[in-house]
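Final report, closing paragraph on structural work. Over the funding period we assembled a curated collection of sequence-structure pairs, and we close with a single example.
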Amino acid sequence: MSWNVEEFNAPDLLPFVKAGQKLSHAAVALQMQSTGALFSLQIEAASFLSRRFWDDLRLIETLMRRDEFADAYDVFVNFFQNATSDYTGEVARLAFLGAGFASETAGRAREEAEATIEDMRAATLAP
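Its predicted structure, as stored:
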């Protein structure tokens, strides 16, 4: 079974069919935007974890070179202070990015809804 795109874009379609097409298009566009935002957050998280894993590896290498317990203790304290600061900063960054993506998506959804309502209003008022 093949679909003819022109059948679904014909000007003589009923107004509710046209509105349904526009609504479907808007839903797909919002889904694509949400997926892009999710991928951006995942890339950011993977980049952060990559940096942290390299720091973990450097900790092990540094501890292997230390002979005294006091030096190892200082290395651990410094490492955990940095790690705590890094993780706290990354959580704040991800929250900021997520809020920005959510705001952008909500704005786009509002614009699409307003455009769809306006199209439906124009279709019902047309003679």
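Residues 9 and 26 are 16 Å apart (CA to CA). The chain has a mean pLDDT of 81. We thank the funder for supporting this effort.
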